[in-house]
């Protein structure tokens, strides 16, 4: 080893050890870095026209998509959306394709990488609906910076999959690894040539080369849906109850997952900036980021039938040494086959969690009765408006800027009728020892349905950027007294708030306490005009409220509610009762729980005993994932609860009422949602379901007001 290599290795190890899983910077002297090309928050260029749907996924290792991005990816592919899956590393670290219970083979990293590639071909062939061992077309792909990669293509009718293997060695010379490539200036990594690969070129990657390669792939394939991993995994205490297992540092994820996501987000921002400058139009795509080893730490949120569909693909990937697949180096990642993913106590297969939960589109109704949808399109905030009330047709998206933004926005209408839009921004995303920070930002209308002001930073409730990166997506609610209440999950897994007073001034951040909740907050205002906040905890549904309007929000436990698996839906009845709807872990059928918050002198800071409350199983609303809830007027002057969510096959369903006779209705064929769909009501109290389509454009479904929906 040369002295220069040794010094570079020491610098990299020092930087990464200091940063842990945070991917922070180094205080050491740094070589010159190319200026970051990123989205300008003030940019509001028009978007490109709608394009044919295409899904692009970026993973660290072969199988990350199968464990963490399904069932979402599978549902899009089965619906005919082409997929391009990019794998950064060769996945060769273990180096032994071992079948548990059998003697361990000799170390052969190139063969193990090749076997994992074959496993993916088997899994995607299964996903496309063809024979597991269908031959693929393999070739070499020339990429920016002079690097080369293997690419495999398989087409079956309308279904198409392309796999791109960058094959960066997980442990490059001098023990360089992906966290160092992100954080440590001057780091260089090399590729590994997999056995039998058509790409036997050894390529070198520095930080900027990898960003350019990913941005180049995005520009070549022009995705309308982009799947990433978790750029900011949550902190995890490791003890006897929560062993460290595969976690890296103090976070609940693999050390390669985090930099992979950071590189992807940085490449997205660069692509949008460069393409907008070149084309004078912003790329049009929607994004979902997926949690990784987080799945092990929280209640399972997928029912058995959905898990079985994931397992079928993982088993095809795992393969078997006795299979005749045509790949001499191996027929899959043998340790993952034959149902082992179900028996593994880490149980990653039993859940799928979004890093930025909430509806993909935030929806409101303007004063004329037209729907407005707000979402993140091409990392920037966008607004769609119905061309006329009830038309179901949308005007072209208006670029509101503010990027690069995480893919979940909160929108409220204040007492004066002005729209307030809140998002989570990647304010710094530099790497190589540079800044890495997030902030909550707000955009407000100056007048009702009028012009917008400028994006303003509200910071985060955390003082240090490393902790600020763990802050959740904003949730908000407007109250009749003119205030806007902003809430966000903290790095400590509690809730913090910031309030905009009626005069438009934002107060300071205030920690509301609580702990052990998942991100994804549900807010509402009750009949007494008090704010309520709900979140899914490890143990039960957590709850925050006020004693009276204008009073501080505080933590008020709900005792007796069962353990939830996802963000609860909440609906307000005219008698002041609140209906909380969610599924228990791994359950297919949700349950509705009804309680009336105490009022007046009875509103004390004490726990509400929910154990004796009436619970109503929703006998026909089988499915998975978060449930949106609301209330609409019905004949006779009473309101009824309306629900929206995913059925077991991933399609959208809506239901009016929670009685035993109530049954859901499915959205029309072809309206497959990306992420979570939103529930809204028009001025005529008509139920509206608004979702993001695979072409990065919204759709609206208005179920006919029959007895069931």
From TrEMBL:
Annotated signal peptide: 1-19
GO biological process, alphabetically ordered: glycoside metabolic process
GO molecular function: hydrolase activity, acting on carbon-nitrogen (but not peptide) bonds, in linear amides
Key words of the record: Signal, Zinc
Protein name in the entry: LmbE family N-acetylglucosaminyl deacetylase
Transmembrane listed as a keyword: no
UniProt keyword Phosphoprotein present: no
Pfam assignment, any one: PIG-L
InterPro entries: GlcNAc_PI_deacetylase-related, LmbE-like_dom_sf, PLL-like_beta-prop
PLL-like beta propeller domain location: 363-583
Region: Disordered, residue numbers: 23-44
Species of the source: Streptomyces zagrosensis
């Amino acid at each position: 080893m040369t002295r220069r290599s040794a010094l570079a290795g020491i610098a990299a190890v020092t930087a990464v050890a200091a940063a842990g899983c945070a991917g922070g910077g180094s205080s050491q002297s740094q070589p010159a870095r190319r200026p970051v090309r990123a989205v300008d928050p003030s940019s509001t260029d028009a978007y490109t026209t709608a394009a044919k749907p295409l899904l692009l996924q970026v993973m660290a290792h072969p199988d990350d998509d199968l464990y963490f991005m399904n069932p979402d990816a599978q549902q899009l592919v089965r619906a005919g959306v082409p997929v391009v899956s990019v794998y950064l590393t060769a996945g060769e670290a273990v180096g032994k394709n071992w079948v548990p219970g059998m003697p361990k083979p000799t170390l052969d990293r190139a063969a193990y990488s090749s076997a994992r590639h074959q496993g993916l071909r088997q899994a995607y062939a299964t996903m496309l609906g063809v024979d597991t061992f269908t031959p693929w077309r393999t070739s070499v792909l020339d990429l920016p910076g002079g690097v080369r990669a293997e690419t495999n293509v398989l087409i079956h009718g309308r279904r198409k999959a392309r796999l791109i293997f960058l094959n960066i060695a997980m442990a490059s010379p001098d023990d360089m690894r992906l966290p160092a490539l992100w954080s440590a200036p001057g780091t260089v990594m090399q590729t590994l040539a997999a056995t039998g690969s058509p790409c036997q070129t050894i390529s070198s990657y520095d930080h900027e080369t990898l960003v350019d390669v990913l941005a180049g792939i995005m520009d070549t394939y022009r995705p309308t849906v982009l799947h990433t991993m978790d750029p900011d995994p949550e902190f995890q205490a490791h003890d006897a109850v929560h062993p460290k297992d595969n976690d890296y540092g103090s976070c609940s994820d693999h050390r390669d997952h985090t930099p992979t996501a950071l590189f992807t987000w940085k490449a997205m921002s660069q692509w949008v900036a460069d393409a907008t400058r070149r084309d004078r139009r912003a790329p049009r795509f929607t994004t979902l980021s997926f949690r990784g080893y987080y799945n092990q730490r929280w209640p399972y949120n997928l029912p058995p039938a959905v898990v079985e569909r994931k397992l079928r693909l993982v088993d095809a990937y795992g393969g078997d040494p006795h299979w005749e697949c045509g790949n001499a180096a191996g027929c899959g990642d043998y340790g993952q086959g034959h149902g082992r993913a179900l028996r593994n106590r880490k149980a990653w297969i039993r859940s799928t969690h979004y890093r930025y939960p909430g509806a993909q589109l935030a929806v409101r109704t303007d004063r004329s009765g037209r729907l407005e949808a707000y979402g993140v399109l091409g990392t920037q905030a966008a607004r769609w408006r119905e061309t006329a009330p009830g038309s179901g047709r949308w005007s072209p998206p208006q670029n509101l800027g503010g990027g690069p933004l995480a893919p979940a926005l909160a929108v409220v209408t204040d007492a004066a009728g002005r729209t307030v839009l809140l998002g989570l921004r990647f304010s710094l995303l530099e790497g190589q020892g540079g800044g890495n920070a997030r902030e909550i930002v707000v955009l407000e209308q100056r007048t009702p349905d009028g012009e917008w002001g400028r994006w303003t930073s509200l910071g985060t409730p955390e003082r240090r950027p490393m902790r600020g990166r763990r802050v959740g997506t904003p949730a908000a609610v407007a109250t009749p007294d003119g205030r806007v209440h902003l809430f966000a999950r903290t790095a400590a897994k509690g809730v913090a708030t910031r309030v905009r007073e009626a005069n438009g001034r934002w107060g300071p951040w205030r920690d509301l306490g609580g702990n052990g909740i998942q991100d994804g907050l549900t807010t509402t205002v009750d009949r007494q005009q008090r704010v309520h906040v709900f979140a899914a905890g490890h143990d039960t549904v957590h709850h925050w409220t006020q004693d009276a309007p204008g009073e501080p929000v505080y933590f008020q436990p709900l005792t007796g509610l069962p353990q939830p698996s996802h963000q609860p839906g909440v609906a307000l009845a005219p008698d002041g009762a609140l209906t909380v709807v969610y599924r228990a872990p791994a359950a297919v059928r949700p349950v509705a729980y009804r309680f009336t918050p105490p009022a007046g002198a009875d509103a004390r800071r004490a726990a509400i005993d929910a154990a004796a409350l009436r619970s109503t199983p929703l006998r026909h609303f089988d499915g998975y994932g978060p449930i949106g809830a609301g209330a609409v007027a019905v004949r006779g002057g009473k309101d009824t609860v309306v629900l929206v969510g995913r059925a077991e096959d991933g399609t959208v369903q809506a239901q009016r009422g929670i009685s035993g006779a109530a049954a859901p209705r499915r959205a029309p064929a072809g309206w497959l949602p990306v992420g979570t769909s939103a529930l809204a009501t028009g001025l005529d109290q008509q139920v509206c379901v608004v979702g993001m389509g695979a072409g990065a454009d919204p759709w609206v479904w208005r179920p006919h007001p029959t007895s069931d929906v």
